[in-house]
Every structure is written in structure tokens, then in C-alpha cells.
């Protein structure tokens, strides 16, 4: 599948930039798929105004592949979305593993109806950049790709600006999620895409949870041989946006409106730090992100969108002190939540 085959409205949605929450996995106490709450989550993101969904990604738990849930979870999200709304949605499937696995997953996602694949390179840690480019090219032959610069703390591979130039030169790459949580490496990606002459084709999406709003509103000037090219992040694909999503979409729209202006409101700039503070609790920064999935589950549990915090790996859960940190940010930043929105619609989503 080539990107030219994507529905025109969906292709424009991705290119212009949108909110793509990373879809969590709802489980029962027996650690089995909880279809009722999984559907409710999908409906929640759609009604909150998300432009699409990222399913089978880190927030969905990579271990779904080990227990036979990869296809069922992707199918359930696609079927729920199609029956819940008629507006265009960008459906992005997480792709992982070595080349054979990643290409198989790409074909699975394509056959279900997903528009693109978010390609994790965590399995390529010992590979050279030449080998990783060959891997990406093979997967791109199956489905349009969203690149993924994942932070090393959770399995990411450090890659050069030259790598991102070569990656952006692959014709079937349509976007890159930039999530190294590192300003230097973020600039490496931007410089690489610019050097490939691909800024018009490859949409830049932030996954930098420590700089979400600043990434979305500020210009980036890239210099080459005395020539300046100004570019912007177009949207975000974030595990952080799996919670308080309605509020996040409002923040995204404010950031979009602030772009291309001579000045940015100080209150909007300051809001970035408050969002980052919330993320520090949700993603368990104090414990090197060990509880990042369970932290998002805790917010969704409190709202009634999940029954519990259960992860496929029994060892995954809240870290010591994380619940207290979540209590703190929920208290100090209560105005950033979407609790009222969820409470007003929860029974409908669970039906």
C-alpha cells in the first residue's frame, strides 16, 4: 500500500497535523481483554475529538504480541471506530520486531484497514544504520510508515541526523513521531528531514512528553549553506494524550492558533510546564518510566474508563510513591482534567 492510496481526507488530516492518542489496553482482573472498556476507550477518544488512534503501540503494551492479542486489539479498535463515527480518522498501527515480524504486522494492519504503521526500532539495537534503513524500506513496501524516535530509557536506539535523512528519503514515509525526550536528538531528526527535502511530505509529530506544548507552538529554524528553512511540528502522537484527552485537544488547538504569530501568549508558554508536571507523575519519571503505562491506567481507572491498572506483565504497576504524585498533580492541575466530560458520557461509551 502506497501513501497515495490513503483516503484523501485522511491523508490531509495526517499532513496538516492532528491529535493521535496512543490507545491503552483494558484488561480484566484475570489479565484478559476487557472488550467493554476497550470499546469505551475508543469511543472516548473519538468523542473527545481525536483525529485518529494509534493502536498496538507502546501504550497498548508490546506484550499483546506474545499472547495472541495483536490482531484482535487492532480489529476491535477499527470496528468500534467505524461504527461510532463517519468522520475521517487516521488509524495508525504499531509495528515491532525484526523485519519478518514487522512486515507481517504491516500486512495484518493494512488488511484490517489501518492507514499507516508506527515502526518501533527497539528490536534493532545491535543493527547498523545501513541494516536499519534496509529494515525500514522492507516494511515501507507493505504500508505507509510513521517513523518513531523512541527514547533510550524505554528501549529506543540512538540514531544520527544522517540516518533520519535517509529514512525521510524513503518514498512511503509520511510522518515521524519524534520522542527522544532530548532537544539535541529532536533537532537531529528535523535537520535530517530538511536535508532530505522531505518537509512537505513527512509530517513532524511530537512524542516528547517533556515539551509537548512547546513543540506544538514554536517555530524551528534550520540552516543549510546560509539558507534558513522554518518548520513546525504538525501534531502529536502521545501516550500522554491517552488521558485527559478532551483537554489535550483544546491545548493542541490553542498551540496551532499561536503558530506563525509574532508573539505567543505567556500563559500558553507557561502551560507547557504544567502539562510536563502532570506527565512526570503519569509517566513515573522519578522511577525511570517504570510505571508509565500503569500511571495512565490509574487516571482512566479513576474516571471509570478502566476497571483496574492491570498490565499483561504482572510486574508492571505503579511505582512506590507514584500514586501520591498522581494525587498531587490531579489536585494541583485539576483544571487540566476532563473529568466532567467523561462523567457526562461514560454510560454511553460503556453501553
Automatic annotation (TrEMBL):
Record key words, sorted: Lyase
Cross-referenced InterPro entries: Aldolase_TIM (IPR013785), DapA-like (IPR002220)
Gene3D superfamilies linked: Aldolase class I
Pfam families: DHDPS (PF00701)
GO MF term list: 4-hydroxy-tetrahydrodipicolinate synthase activity
Top-level taxon of origin: Bacteria
Keyword Lyase attributed: yes
SMART domains reported for this sequence: DHDPS (SM01130)
Record protein name field: Bll4205 protein
Organism: Bradyrhizobium diazoefficiens (strain JCM 10833 / BCRC 13528 / IAM 13628 / NBRC 14792 / USDA 110)
Amino acid at each position: 500500500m502506497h501513501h497515495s492510496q490513503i483516503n484523501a481526507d485522511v491523508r490531509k488530516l495526517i499532513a496538516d497535523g492532528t491529535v493521535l492518542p496512543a490507545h491503552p489496553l483494558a484488561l480484566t482482573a484475570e489479565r484478559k481483554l476487557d472488550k467493554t472498556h476497550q470499546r469505551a476507550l475508543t469511543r472516548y477518544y473519538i468523542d473527545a475529538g481525536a483525529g485518529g488512534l494509534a493502536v498496538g503501540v507502546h501504550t497498548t503494551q508490546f506484550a499483546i504480541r506474545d499472547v495472541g492479542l495483536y490482531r484482535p486489539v487492532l480489529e476491535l479498535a477499527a470496528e468500534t471506530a467505524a461504527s461510532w463515527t463517519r468522520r475521517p480518522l487516521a488509524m495508525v498501527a504499531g509495528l515491532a520486531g525484526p523485519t519478518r515480524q514487522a512486515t507481517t504486522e504491516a500486512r495484518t494492519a493494512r488488511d484490517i484497514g489501518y492507514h499507516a504503521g508506527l515502526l518501533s526500532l527497539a528490536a534493532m539495537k545491535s543493527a547498523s544504520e545501513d541494516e536499519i534503513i534496509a529494515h525500514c524500506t522492507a516494511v515501507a513496501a507493505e504500508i505507509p510508515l510513521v517513523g518513531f524516535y523512541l527514547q533510550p530509557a524505554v528501549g529506543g536506539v540512538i540514531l544520527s541526523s544522517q540516518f533520519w535523512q535517509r529514512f525521510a528519503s524513503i518514498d512511503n514515509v509520511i510522518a515521524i513521531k519524534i520522542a527522544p525526550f532530548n532537544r539535541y536528538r529532536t533537532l537531529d531528526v528535523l535537520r535530517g528531514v530538511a536535508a532530505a527535502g522531505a518537509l512537505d511530505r513527512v509530517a513532524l509529530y511530537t512524542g516528547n512528553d517533556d515539551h509537548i506544548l512547546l513543540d506544538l507552538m514554536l517555530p524551528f529554524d534550520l540552516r543549510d549553506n546560509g539558507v534558513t528553512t522554518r518548520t513546525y511540528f504538525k501534531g502529536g502522537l502521545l501516550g500522554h494524550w491517552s488521558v485527559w484527552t478532551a483537554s489535550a485537544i483544546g491545548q493542541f488547538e490553542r498551540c496551532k492558533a499561536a503558530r506563525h504569530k509574532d508573539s505567543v501568549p505567556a500563559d500558553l508558554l507557561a502551560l507547557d510546564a504544567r502539562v510536563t508536571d502532570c506527565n512526570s507523575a503519569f509517566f513515573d519519571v522519578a522511577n525511570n518510566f517504570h510505571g508509565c503505562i500503569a500511571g495512565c491506567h490509574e487516571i482512566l481507572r479513576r474516571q471509570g474508563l478502566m476497571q483496574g491498572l492491570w498490565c499483561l506483565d504482572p510486574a508492571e504497576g505503579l511505582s512506590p510513591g507514584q500514586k501520591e504524585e498522581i494525587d498531587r498533580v490531579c489536585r494541583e492541575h485539576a483544571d487540566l482534567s476532563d473529568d466532567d466530560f467523561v462523567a457526562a458520557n461514560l454510560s454511553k461509551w460503556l453501553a
